[in-house]
Design a protein that fits this description.
The protein is an alpha/beta fold and about 325 residues long. It has helices spanning about 15-25, 40-45, 60-65, 80-85, 100-115, 120-125, 130-135, 155-165, 190-195, 215-220, 240-250, 265-270, 285-305; strands at about 5-10, 25-30, 45-50, 70, 90-95, 145-150, 170-175, 185, 200, 225-230, 255, 275. The protein has 2 domains: about 5-95 and about 285-305, NAD(P)-binding Rossmann-like Domain (Rossmann fold); about 100-275, NAD(P)-binding Rossmann-like Domain (Rossmann fold, 3-Layer(aba) Sandwich). The strands form 2 sheets. Strands 8-7-6-9-10-11-12 form a 7-stranded parallel beta sheet, with helices on both faces. Helix 1 runs parallel beside helix 13 and helix 5 packs across helix 8. The relative contact order is 0.14.
Length: about 325
């Protein structure tokens, strides 16, 4: 009789490539997202791994006595209770690097869209207004001569900075600690960074420290020529303060790929002509999402094949 395959739990929806590849190596069990975990005791005891695009709370881990690894689809893994995983010796992995270029490319595109109003100009043409009303008005903002501040300078932040260099803008950053051998100017606080720059790009993860870190004071410091770009987490921006700042001219414009309560976007933001809005698509290309899916599966295959993983998160390093 053939040896029984390890069982992998897939809660809710995940990229179809993950399921396609998992089927060849593992038994797949599914469950809807949410609590409590809807899985019988016998199946719960079989689960040795989870492949997830979403949340894995501590209560789920308590129901899965033989769980060894949680493979998260995405760089951000704030939906997984990593503290609970670490306390139980459960490895958590994510999908860094393979999406860095795509997110950085999208960030630059969003920045240009925001300062030059390119989505609005295309709509103007498509509506026949160029022929009927004449040229589109000059954009009030430009990328020329800007000073860009990066709130976060990890893998993706570094790629964004490299892409900014050819635009001949000045670059500064704020992180918890200065980066060794970094050519960009460091500011010890986010408020200091905002006061020094006129363009702020947010690319920090969702943590207790980053919750609404970009608040009314930071936006005021950014100034009336200021532009905010957020491709990190909606969690990091006080959305009410941002809407007010865009409405009253405290800052000039904002480009957002992430929001507080996705996919719900406040109508006040949608109505603003100085806001460029994307539906969380920074990494959303077929090649990049396929690479992320492959890394989820490759982490699981590696763990059950030789006891190592490719991309562990720092809170749960492999033994």
């Amino acid at each position: 009789m053939s040896q029984q395959k390890s069982a992998i739990l897939v809660p809710g929806k995940i990229h179809p490539r993950v399921l396609d590849r998992l089927q060849a190596e593992f038994d797949i069990l599914t469950a809807p997202q949410g609590a409590p975990l809807e899985l019988g005791e016998a199946d719960a005891a079989r689960v040795r791994g989870i492949a997830v695009s979403g949340a894995v709370p501590a209560a789920w881990m308590e129901r899965l006595p033989n769980l060894e690894i949680i493979a998260n689809f995405g760089v951000g893994y704030d939906g997984v209770d990593v503290a609970a995983a670490a306390s139980r010796g459960i490895i958590v992995t994510n999908t860094p690097d393979v999406l860095d270029d795509e997110v950085a490319d999208t960030t630059i595109a969003l920045l240009i869209n925001t300062v030059r109003q390119l989505p609005r100009t295309e709509a103007y043409l498509r509506e026949g207004r160029w022929a009927n009303n004449g040229p589109f008005p000059l954009s009030p903002l430009s990328l020329r001569g800007r000073h860009v501040g990066l709130f976060g300078l990890g893998r993706i932040g570094g790629e964004i900075a490299k892409r900014l260099e050819p635009f001949k803008v000045k670059i500064s950053y704020h992180t918890r600690r200065p980066k060794a051998d970094c050519p960009y100017g460091y500011h010890a606080s986010l408020l200091d960074l905002a006061a020094a720059v006129d363009t702020l790009i947010c690319i920090v993860p969702k943590t207790a420290e980053t919750h609404k870190a970009i608040d009314a004071a930071v936006l005021k410091a950014l100034g009336p020529n200021g532009v905010l770009i957020n491709v990190g987490r909606g969690w990091s921006v006080d959305e009410d303060a941002l809407i007010a700042a865009l409405q009253d001219g405290t800052i000039a414009a904002a480009g957002l790929d992430v929001f507080q309560e996705e996919p719900k976007v406040p109508q006040a933001l949608i109505d603003l002509p100085n806001a460029s809005l994307l539906p969380h698509v920074a990494s959303a290309s077929v090649p990049t999402r396929n690479a992320m899916a492959d890394l989820v599966v490759d982490n699981l295959i590696s763990w059950f094949g030789n006891g190592t993983v490719l991309t562990p998160v720092p809170e749960t390093p492999p033994k």
